[in-house]
Design goal:
The protein is α/β, with parallel strands linked by helices. It has helices spanning 17-23, 30-36, 46-49, 72-85, 106-109, 126-142; strands at 7-12, 51-52, 58-61, 94-99, 117-122, 149-155. Keywords: ATP-binding, Chlorophyll biosynthesis, Chloroplast, Iron, Iron-sulfur, Metal-binding, Nucleotide-binding, Plastid.
Length: 164
Amino acid sequence: ARRGKKVLQIGCDPKHDSTFTLTGFLIPTIIDTLQMKDYHYEDVWPEDVIHKGYSGVDCVEAGGPPAGAGCGGYVVGETVKLLKESNAFYEYDIILFDVLGDVACGGFAAPLNYADYCIIITDNGFDALFAANRIAASVREKSQTHPLRLAGLVGNRTSERDLI
């Protein structure tokens, strides 16, 4: 964003951690907005779900169902569908999806259908490495039918990168 690129950050985590960090507040989620509009996609406008964050980064939060009451992957898929229908994918130079790393089901893997590259941010913890492996396997699978490549792994909060 500081280099003049138009950037969209899509948070796909119930904690809202990436979008909250950029905006300073809990932005309304796409799933909550759709629910308020009785799932009439045509009644949802970009300004209903896209909020300006730090350094001009636009932010969207997918949201999720209450614990034990639905599928988070479904919510991510609905977010992709809504943004595609509103042509938001074509207005940005860079789109970042912050997805849960420990889940690599079809819904959470939906953003990979629109990606050119995937960068996995991980640490040396067993759970993080397991998740990184699952995401890499998803990228390998999707790359059979989409122009998607794994760009690499970033070691986060770790001084040793040997396991990564």
